[in-house]
Amino acid sequence: MDPYASWLVSGDNAWQMTAATLVGLMSIPALAVLYGGIVQRKWAVNTMMMVFSAFCMTLIVWVLWAFKMGFGDSWISTYVGKPSSILGVAGEQAQAVIPSLKGLMPNFRFPEGSLAYFQFVFAAITPILFIGSVVGRIKFKVWVIFVPLWITFAYAVNAFLLWGGGFWAQKGALDFSGGYVIHLAAGVSGFVAAAMVGPRLAKDREKGVPNNLLFIAVGAGILWLGWNGFNGGDPYFAGADATAAVVNTNLATACAMMTWIFMDMFLGKEKKPTFLGGVNGMICGLVGITPAAGYVNGVGAIVIGVLDAALVWMLFGYLPRKVWPFNKVDDALGVVYTHGFAGLIGGLLVGFLADPQMIVYIGLGKTPSVSGVGLFYGHPRQLLIQAGAALTVIVWDGVVTYVILRVIKFFTPLRYPDAILVAGDVLAHGEVAYPMEEPDAPTEFAAIPGEPDPAQHHAALSDGAGPTEREKV
After folding, report:
1. Pairing of strands 74-76, 80-81
2. For residue 161, what are the β-bridge partners?
3. Residues with Cβ within 8 Å of residue 458, at least 6 apart in sequence
4. Measured in whole angstroms, how far is the alpha carbon of residue 188 from the centre of its chain?
5. 1: which residues sit within 8 A by CB, 6+ positions away?
6. Which of the residues 10, 211, 213, 245 could staple to 293 if both were Cys, CB 3.0 to 4.6 A apart?
7. Helix, strand or coil for residue 380?
8. What are the backbone angles phi and psi of residue 440, rounded to the nearest 5°?
9. pLDDT tens digit sequence for 156-205
10. pLDDT score for 456
11. What is the distance between the alpha carbons of residues 96 and 402, in angstroms, rounded to a whole number?
12. How confident is the model at residue 365 (pLDDT cuts 50, 70, 90)?
């Protein structure tokens, strides 16, 4: 007996599943803890619920139809794959294949299930990222409807266009691990959703202080190290390019984090380094190197880390104060900056810095090696291709997000009523993250049609299990 099929290489399969698990850890628990620590304490439970539920719902639609839309046979021209299930034996144990890329890259040496799960954790983290744009006011029931629809009509199309052999893949667009498919998409969709849901309460915007910096540190640390799987798993083989992607990821991130800290120290309003600022820089570095990780050398990684953090730092300080619509939309955690703009900048920089000597797949015989070639190495057209792919993602994801939320709004309001916005988790979920502390609650509780009776929820929580006095508002 033999445990391995003739085409399966155990090292490649083990690395692919390990990389997928590292990426999964970036969502649960990393972003649950990171976002849960950044938001006001009254929204910590809601934030964790949104993270975990998005992870669950994405996996369900992924195996039922969405994986094949992103990585299956072409269905609507070169724009999206044909939806179908992967629940059968072939979907888990047969040799993995991306039909539109067959012959353009080495044959996979692991099962379809490994490919599907690896791509699932990428799909799941994308809506989880833009929770930060709408946290503290979007209704949970709206979120659980929105995520499956967004994965189907936005993410699966992005994936096919750039990774599944679709239109922009055929044009030669370079997005190594999701600077466009994931981060630019999350920034755009989060910003549009924030505009449609509306801002947080004025009181919450004024006192939006993180509730737990230690949780933020834990989440940020897992996010950083999990990114080794995010970028290191994307060559699909445990080869030299996977190593280069991991090294470049960490190098760019270190440079970006210190760039943000130094800019806070010497150019910031208060001239003080802050941990939250450092985390913003860290995320900019991780996001900026993502579309480039296996295409650029170490010098390119440093350049991307420094430029991405510096540019986003300046945009963060200028756009929300001076430029429409950024000064009108309450993007609570600045996702459009640390993911949207950071992914866009990183993707465009690939058009300059992609080094043809960084080999992704080694050519044999007359077959050339696979690599990227940027403007600085004699291929100026690459920058135009990168810009075209970015514009497609921006327009498509913005429109799809708007349409989905407009349809949902016909059936239910997108945001919680003010009574729940004041109280937070205690009324939205009947739980609080820190039960020994007093949650915000209105002086008078009024029943809201279609919502749980707030007086009953507060009384149940206070009956021997929590605070008994209500904060005046």
Report:
1. antiparallel
2. none
3. 423, 426, 427, 441, 445, 470
4. 11
5. none
6. 245
7. coil
8. -65, 140
9. 999 999 999 999 999 999 999 999 999 999 999 999 999 999 999 999 99
10. 54
11. 35
12. confident
Alpha-carbon dihedral angle through residues 207, 309, 119, 29, given to the nearest 10 degrees: -40
Using a 10 angstrom Cβ sphere, with 0-12 exposed, 13-18 middle and 19 or more buried, the burial of residue 364 is exposed
Phi, psi dihedral angles at 434 (to 5 degrees)? -125, 85
Cβ 111 vs Cβ 94: under 8 Å: yes
What residues form DSSP beta bridges with 111? 95
Q: How confident is the model at residue 386 (pLDDT cuts 50, 70, 90)?
A: very high
Domain-wise residue ranges, the chain = 10-409, 418-462
Q: Looking at residues 130-143, what average pLDDT do you find?
A: 96
Architecture of domain 10-409: Orthogonal Bundle (1.10)
User: How far, in Å, CA of 389 to CA of 291, rounded?
Assistant: 12
- Sign of the CA dihedral with 448 first, then 449, 455, and 459 last: negative
| CA Rg value for the chain | 23
The Cα–Cα gap between 12 and 233 comes to 10
Residue with tokens 């009024």: 446
Please choose, from the candidates 405, 406, 428, the residue with its C-alpha nearest in 3D space to the C-alpha of residue 417: 428
Q: What count of residues does the chain have?
A: 473
Do the beta carbons of residue 19 and residue 116 sit within 8 Å? no
CB 139 within 8 A of CB 412: yes
Q: Is 12 helix (H, G, I), strand (E, B) or coil?
A: helix
List the structure tokens of 164.
């599944």
Would you give the distance in Å from CA 153 to the centre of its chain?
16
